[in-house]
Amino acid sequence: MQNGLNKFFDSVSPTAEQKQRMLSNILNHSGEEPRMKKVSKGMSMTVIFAAVILLFGGTALAAALGSFDWLIRRFDPVFGNLAVKVEAVSVDQDIRMEVIGARRYDNMAVIYLSLQDLSGENRITEDTGFRDGFSVKMDIPDGENSGMGMRRNMLYFDEETNTVYYEITIDSDWPIADPLELESFLIHFGTALYENEPIDIDLSSVTEAEAVPLGDSYIYGRDSSFDGVPKPAEILAPGFYAEMPHGNERQWISNVGLLDGYLHVQVNSLYGEFGPGSSPDIYLLSPEGERVDGYYVQMFADGEGRIFLNGERVSDDNIVYRYMDFVYPVDTAVLDNYSLYYSGSVTSGAVGSWKVSANTGDTGKQMRIWANTVPVEGILLEHLTLSPLGLSARGSYAGENDTGLEVVLLTPAGEINLGTHDGSWDNNKKTVNYNWNSKSPVDVSAVTGMKVNGVRIEMN
Amino acid sequence: MEDSSSRDNAEISAIYTRHADTVYRIALMILKNTADAEDVTQTVFIKLMNAPTRFDGNEHVKAWLITVTRNACRDMAKSWWRSKRGDMDGVKESAYSPQDTDRDIWNRVMGLHEKYKLPVYLYYYEGYDTGEISRILKINHSTVRTRLRTARLKLRQLLEEDWNDAERA
To answer: What pLDDT sits at residue A310?
Structure first.
């Protein structure tokens, strides 16, 4: 199957003529797009409070007020008025996670949360987050899949205490459990960048190398600029040749050599949640200082060295190694004129268990629920819930589901555009779980109706 | 990579050389015609020229391009202009002329829903793992796995027989 897929994807590449035409159009574009304007808001309570913090220090103030009151006063976050105090803490791997405040509304929630490194190693950075380790407990009917979306807005990074504060909004396919239970099994600390780092290999000493055959089935990631270069029949045999410039032991140069008259450079990466990026940028600099990119072939191996070509990689569960075999179209007789370089990144993080439960109170009066069936462009919206955080809907459809649904809320003060839906759908069961997140709290009591792709729905 | 609100032509050209194929393929898979795929490719790189985003290396640029391409395709798919553009099959053939045996593959792969096509492309062709796909497409990790599993079944049923025949020939 893989070979056919690669042939297919290769076949949908642009022609050289198309690429040149598109590039010309891009470069001839004026490039003048509307810029975001900064809006002066005048001196708010937040500004005044920030000035107070400068005088007295944030940590001391937080201790005096309690973290919830401190955070709300300090940052005046968008959905801050909706949240209730939680101040519940979970610690693992010397990382302290505090859920400072939160509120759940049926399928949506807002959470104010901090992460602090207690180890003294200052592992928390402005880029720290949960990646895909984060989840909230949902009331999921038997036989249904879970689905969840999360938006994270960093409020503040305190270098002194190595703490980051976030406003997180959640939308889920099914009602969020009450009390709210949230957890993460990993925390991503940050990413170190490496730009144009020389790789300490003398290319003049590179010789013919041991190879392994590729067979018919392989992943082929080169672009059309290599159309004149024959596809390789074999790649380098994996081993250990040199360290990468980042020095991280989870990725190394596994071999360098000449095959069929071409220079091959092979990089091996250990699979895992953290470590060097899986797509390192390995390139040559010519004697004139020009960058020469290679194309690459990929293969995978399990812990016992069994090699899986990409088409045999039916899941990531048994994969331990990923090999990228780069091939460069340069004259191998003058390799001593070239230098090898690397650009890429290395992520760091911790795997553990951070879990907090919080009762966020009764929110029934701040929600409106419709159980009527509303048909919109072939989709039957069967259960709509409007809360201060936005709108969610469950429904069903017949045929194909490729219609974007845009929602506008109607109020006496004007329209509130919630944009196009997010969420998920199930092509087998023909069901949808959609949501529309508001950028600011919705006054639910003021909403008189809504338009879904122009179809007006009155609200009684 | 530097924080840039106006990347110069040399930088855009370098990024374009590396990633134009990826952007174009995704656009063509979603929109199913070459004219729209070209438009989206150009739109995405023009956005890149002025994007204030600070990129954390080549991997970040590529992930950004994939996300912006998908969004640009959705915008175009909704636009009035596209709906008036005419029969897409006619346009498709102007630049993509599959052989008779490949035409069937084209029809069947392109017939998959976008939610299957993109994970399949990113997993099998670009070599991303499911965690990376989850982050790029902003969908749950388990959802990515489920979609890949479903897509594999669909493709195996649809294509394996054809390809086995072709590869034996």
So the answer is: 55
